[in-house]
Design a protein that fits this description.
8-stranded mixed β-barrel, flat, about 40% helix, 8-stranded mixed sheet, alpha+beta, 31 helices
């Protein structure tokens, strides 16, 4: 083919491709650097470093200010003792400590050692003591000033001290004291203090002591921002505490000073930036400022602050942080106009709930964006320059590489053009694998076609997969098979090629190794023993027939089959016990359900291990796992009796026996199982043997059910009954118990929902006085908001079965009183009757909550002890104590049933006895009931207990119980329970009045 105008050389194409690839790489790298967050992370690192350095410096400064400079307890104690002693010895008062008074100067001379000692201990640049004398304990108004006695010493270099104290300067002191101490006076020395309205260092702690009597002086201390003494040029910050008389009256202040220059030396700005482009700002803000991000300068270190913010002393930062503790200043740098950033960290100088906790000091490390992000900017510039250099170099290298790569191809093309068509083809090697492969292919095309078997063997060998291929055709003198065929079968290679018939016989011999469980689509799987181990190998044979030719491929799929079986095992078996899991057990039951005739007689055993939680909590989960495995080993031994064992959950197991002709054989096997289960034990870490114990339930096939799924539910219910009756027992399924109590098992979730959501309401039924017809009180009757458990009795049954009666007791008290509190139209002072379980008592925490919430109602509560429950002495004693403490009443509910007897009545001493409706029902027609009721009334009269007749439903019953001596009535005839009780009908009230008026003279007198 001739050259066209569009054709290009391989050098051009390769060079363009390489150049484009390198250019794309450079662009991707640059884009990743700029857009992938690298620069952002570098900037964040820079801000993190600024924030961390500022935080460290803040912590150091905060430690000095709180734990060193402001520690005055020792000095406070020494001065207080010295002053009290001096005043007592000289018959003076605090008001007489006037300036320029000899006795005051003598006192100050005694206190000078305490002040000097505090300077040395606290390493401050000075300390001062001011005595209020007779000055008013209030801030002066306007320009008014007071002269006060005191002592102020300054040490310009706290790090060096002299025993002669000649390194101290006297700022405020009497001349006599200066001479006696050998001190040097400062240029602005004065013998007294002049205190004015703006002297916060004096008046802030002094007035705080007046506003907070009894407070500790340390909690009244105040840090004063930068200021100067009167007629002094030295900028200082001070910390001062009030000096308090024994009665708490302040009579002066004690303080330390720190010069601004000294503080500036504590803030080495070069640690923020070696180029001196950053500064520390010690600032203060108060709650009175309208802008929480405005700060007043106290100390600045470093020249950068001036060109970052100018000459001002007010710094403003944005309220929202730019990054973590980094805030951007509202003003740009006054030097280059770039944004300014500051890492703001607040100092904790005051305790909480102290007068000056609103004053907030902060340390800010500031710099501009150009300095802060200089490293990331230099990285970006360097990368861009590097990309340009790499792009230029890559283009040159691409041209060179294209020329070098195309040289062998050009040489091969020249050799091909120079070949003799009649001679053998032999091309010179180029030592380039791809080009040499091309040359070899050209040589193969020029030679005779090699044998078909040789070519196929080469193809199989190139796949590097353990497979072999074969071909059987009548057109071939023998069967064709690759060299790997017989090694895959584990047989030696035949000495001669096999005929087609002989090869077919080999394939037929493989059928005895067919593995039907591992069939794979249309292919056949063979399971062969491994040559050098007890393991097996799996081979897959796939054949295709075309006309009279049979083609086949044999592949070693051992790894695939082993992996598949491992996955299936993990899917179907519990890893801890190697028993079937719930899913596999269900699948096996479904298979068995399809063949009911093979089951004959069967037994579904549901077993739950006892005490597993105790073992886990006491000895650890390893011991609990051993306990589970011990049970599984026992169950596994019984699978030989046509049993199917499975672990369903943490401590629950299923065991299904089937295929028995008679039930008696099953019973013998189960009895043997229980015997071995009881004999099994594990060894605890302390060396003791711990016997296996389990509760079990059994359901029989087909006597109980011919549905295996239903049989599982029945066995589960039987196990539940055994667990709740006595642990370690075996219970046969009983259909009557199931119909009666199955809701106890399957309504556990509904009970938990009711308890969690407090889904109960309370209906109220009035209790009337027989004599007056007035409402004595209302009984609160629980009504669950549930279609499954609508009855309180059912709720109590399942709560008792689940050991959750305490939750019911708590729900009764809190929700019952909540409903009574919200009950509209209840008479003033009426009582609230609440049913309390005799065996339960609220915890102390719950009682405290109840008392705090319903304190006004405690004296109006009547605690009805449910007599159908057996009394608990501890719970009953606690309830009696509460009733005595808060004036509550006690009523015995359902009296005449359950555990009632005279001894219970004597032990509890109730205020009311509520006679059970079983006695009241039909009492007008039953002489025995009348006799029993009359005797109960007589006994209660003697014990001064009032009688309430429950369940009055007819007028005849009303007249009878009133005539027999009842004090109060309750029942449907008077009013039904309602969430908002209605008034008692006038007819019922008239009937009550008539019955009371007709009571015979022989009737026992009312209590």
């Amino acid at each position: 083919m001739g050259k066209t105008s569009r054709s290009r050389s391989i050098v051009q194409k390769l060079s363009l491709f390489l150049a484009a690839t390198l250019a794309a790489q450079c662009l991707l790298f640059t884009g990743f650097l700029l857009l992938g967050g690298t620069v952002e992370r570098l900037d964040q690192n820079a801000m993190d470093i600024l924030s961390e350095q500022t935080l460290n410096r803040k912590n150091y400064l905060e430690s000095d200010m709180v734990q060193r400079w402001s520690v005055m307890e020792q000095t406070q104690a020494g001065i207080a003792a010295a002053v009290q002693s001096y005043l007592a010895d000289n018959d003076m008062t605090y008001d007489q400590l006037a300036p320029n008074e000899p006795r005051t100067n003598a006192l100050l001379a005694q206190l000078s050692d305490e002040l000097i000692g505090m300077i040395r201990r606290n390493s401050t640049t000075g300390a001062f003591l001011i005595l209020n004398g007779s000055a008013p304990l209030s801030r002066p108004k306007g320009d008014q000033e007071y002269s006060m006695a005191g002592l102020h010493l300054r040490d310009m270099d706290p790090k060096s001290t002299l025993s002669t104290n000649s390194d101290l300067l006297a700022e405020r002191s009497s001349s006599e004291l200066v001479r006696s101490l050998g001190l040097t006076t400062d240029i602005n020395w004065s013998p007294t203090f002049t205190v004015g309205a703006k002297d916060d260092a004096y008046y802030r702690p002094l007035l705080a002591a007046l506003d907070h009597p009894g407070a500790d002086p340390a909690d009244l201390g105040y840090w004063t921002p930068a200021h100067t003494l009167d007629n002094d040029q030295t900028q200082i910050i001070t910390y001062s505490q009030p000096l308090l008389a024994p009665d708490g009256t302040p009579y002066g202040i004690l303080g330390v000073e720190l010069t601004v220059d000294y503080l500036r030396r504590q803030l080495p700005y070069t640690e923020l930036n070696t180029d001196k482009d950053a500064s520390y700002l010690l600032v203060v803000t108060t709650d009175s400022m309208t802008n929480a991000t405005s700060f007043q300068s106290i100390v600045t270190s470093g020249p950068a602050a001036k060109w970052l913010f100018g000459e001002g002393s007010l710094f403003q930062f944005q309220g929202e942080p730019y990054y973590h503790s980094i805030h951007q200043a509202l003003e740009r740098s006054s030097r280059v106009g770039t944004p300014v950033y500051g890492s703001i960290h607040y100092l904790t100088l005051y305790n909480s709930n102290t007068p000056f906790q609103g004053q907030r000091w902060a340390l800010i490390g500031v710099t501009d964006s150009a300095s802060l992000f200089s490293f990331s900017h230099s990285v970006v510039r360097s990368v861009l320059l590097l990309c340009l250099i790499l792009l230029a170099v890559s283009i040159c290298l691409a041209l060179l590489a294209g020329s070098i790569f195309s040289a062998p191809i050009r040489a091969l093309a020249q050799d091909v053009r120079a070949l003799d068509p009649n001679g053998p083809v032999e091309l010179k090697p180029t030592h380039v694998r791809e080009i040499d492969d091309l040359a070899h292919s050209i040589e193969l095309l020029s030679r005779d076609v090699a044998a078909y078997s040789s070519r196929l063997s080469q193809i199989v060998e190139l796949t590097q997969i353990p497979l072999a291929a074969f071909q059987i055709s009548p057109d071939l003198p023998s069967a064709y098979y690759t060299s790997d065929f017989f090694p895959l079968l584990g047989r030696p290679e035949p000495e001669r090629p096999l005929t087609c018939a002989e090869f077919l016989q080999v394939l037929e011999d493989l059928d005895r190794y067919r593995d039907e469980e591992s069939e794979y689509g249309d292919a056949s799987i063979y399971k062969l023993p491994a040559a050098q181990s007890s393991a097996y190998r799996w081979l897959r044979l796939q054949t295709v027939r075309s006309d009279r030719t049979l083609l086949g491929v044999l592949v070693d799929v051992t790894e695939e089959v082993v992996e598949k079986r491992r996955i299936e095992y993990e899917r179907d078996y519990d890893l801890l016990t190697s028993l079937l899991n719930r899913r596999a057990f269900q699948v096996r039951l479904d298979r068995m359900s399809a063949r009911p005739d093979a089951i004959c007689h069967g037994a579904m055993l549901m077993m739950d291990l006892d005490n597993l939680k105790y073992l886990n909590d006491t000895y650890g989960h390893d011991c609990g796992d051993e306990y589970i495995r011990c049970a599984a080993d026992v169950l596994r031994r019984f699978t030989v009796y046509s049993g199917l064992a499975a672990r369903i959950s943490g401590d629950e197991f299923y065991l299904f026996f089937s295929g028995y002709d008679q039930r008696e054989g099953l019973q013998q096997v189960i009895a043997q199982l229980r015997s071995e289960m009881a004999a099994a034990a594990i060894r605890l870490p302390d060396g003791q043997n711990y016997r296996l114990r389990a509760s079990a339930g059994v359901a029989w096939y087909p006597e109980d059910s011919s549905s295996l799924q239903e049989l599982v539910r029945f066995a589960d219910f039987a196990m539940y009954e055994a667990k709740n009756a006595s642990k370690g027992g075996l219970r046969d399924f009983d259909i009557q118990s199931y119909q009666r109590d199955s809701f106890l098992l399957y309504s556990r979730g509904e009970l938990n929902r009711i308890l969690d959501e407090e889904a109960v309401d309370f209906a109220f039924q009035p209790i009337l006085c027989c004599a007056t017809g007035a409402v004595l009180g209302y009984e609160g009757l629980m009504r669950p908001r549930s279609s499954t458990l609508p009855s309180p009795l059912d709720l109590l049954r399942i709560a008792r079965a689940q050991s959750k009666l305490h939750q019911i007791e708590r729900l009764t008290w809190f929700k019952g009183m909540e409903a009574f509190h919200a009950l509209p139209g209840k008479p003033d002072g009426c009582l609230c009757f609440l049913n309390s379980l005799a065996s339960q008592a609220l915890t102390m925490q719950e009682l405290s909550q109840f008392d705090a919430r319903y304190a006004p109602y405690l004296g109006r509560i009547v605690m009805e002890l449910t007599e159908s429950d057996e009394l608990n002495d501890d719970a009953t004693r606690l309830k009696q104590q509460r009733c005595q403490r808060f004036g509550m009443h006690i009523a015995m509910d359902d009296f005449g049933t359950g555990y009632s007897n005279d001894s219970v009545l004597l032990n509890i001493s109730p205020d009311f006895v509520k006679v059970d409706m079983g006695i009241i029902r039909g009492i007008d027609q039953d002489k025995n009931r009348q006799t029993l009721f009359r005797n109960l009334v007589s006994l209660c009269r003697e014990m001064r207990v009032q009688v309430i007749a429950e369940g009055v439903e007819t007028a005849e019953e009303l007249r009878t119980v009133v005539a027999l001596g009842a004090d109060y009535l309750q029942g449907y005839y008077l009013s039904r329970p309602a969430f908002q009780p209605t008034l008692v009908s006038e007819k019922a009230l008239q009937e009550l009045r008539a019955a009371w008026n007709s009571r015979e003279e022989t009737t026992l007198p009312p209590s």
